[in-house]
Amino acid sequence: MIIAGAASMGLLSACNGILGGIYDEPDSGNNNTGFENEGEIFIDATSYTQWVYIDFSEQATVTLGYEEEAPKNWDIAVHRYDVKTNGAKVIETDYSDFDEAIKATIDEANLVADIWTTSQIVIDMSTMMDGYLSYTESYYNPELSKWLNVDTSTMPPIYTSSGKVYIVYLADGTRVGVKLLNYMNDMQVKGYMTIQYMYPFN
Q1: How far apart are CA 101 and CA 97, in angstroms?
Q2: Who has the most CB within 10 Å: 16, 56, 66, 154?
Q3: Residue 94 — left, alpha, or beta (φ > 0 → left; ψ -120 to 50 → alpha)?
Q4: Is the CB of residue 79 less than 8 Å from the CB of residue 121?
Q5: Is the dihedral of CA 178, 181, 183, 184 positive or negative?
Q6: What span, in angstroms and rounded, lies between the C-alpha atoms of 81 and 144?
């Protein structure tokens, strides 16, 4: 379902069309994807119409359109910089180092579950100059999505990574530590993401 929203509510991430070249048009560079290195995942989240599903136990990624059914097994999924989980709960730690975060005392009452949103997941930026964007309905985890702040009060937007380790409590009870290491590739094209992880996180 596509929902039109005011541009002032959602000038997130970047722009296509008239302003596309300023931000993140796909380009050449190091665009390898998947579980390439130990403890790191590289994903192509440049598309506004796709989710990248990540399965930590199988070390697998699957990219599907936003209207397609999710794969059978997955843990988290990334759309641009928005994140949803497969029945998990998440907490942001105060630490940027996995070894420090793993020793932190966690109040599980503060874990954040996914919420349903109709005004977060932008699927079409081409109408931005006409004063509206198009959204799709979806679940979304506001805690894990804090890993990157996009300040649209200036042009071009300012991207700031939290640098924090997030602990994801999966539905089966396993914990995963994740951290957004980078949100662009070698050519500085935004949407190519490097995610550090520790699985299991214990």
Answers
A1: 6
A2: 56
A3: alpha
A4: yes
A5: negative
A6: 10
